[in-house]
Amino acid sequence: MVTRMALKLPLVESDSVTVEDGRLLRVGDLAQRTNKTVRALHLYEELGLLRPSERSKGGYRLYGSDAVVRVRWISKLQEMGFSLPDIREVLHEWEGSGSATGAMHRIRALYVQKLEQTREQIQRLNTLKADLESSIAYLDTCEVCDPERLTTA
Fold it and tell me: Total structural domains in the chain?
């Protein structure tokens, strides 16, 4: 089992990241490595999800390999249905946690909550699916449809 320090993020599938010679990445390089747009990365910065390690003399944002992991984790959370404000809350709680164990418990609670919401959404979609299948079956059998029967079928 891999343990992470309080400021480190949980592992994601593609967690093997190296920045050659310890060089920092410009925002365009980070965007390319993470398949995000520069604008998306700027938005992440505006929302407090991502911070450059430093700025160059010319004012360019510079990021370390930890930023690649962070952006990939943000993407994974978005795929799971978390909104950017939800992700900001997760990251702030993670970083503000006094211990890795406390952070893991909080993230687990958020995942459990998201799982329950997902189950409820699946139930709603299954109900919608059944309603649509029933309506399609009715429409397949009628030659002259009565509009009132469409809503009561």
Answer: 2
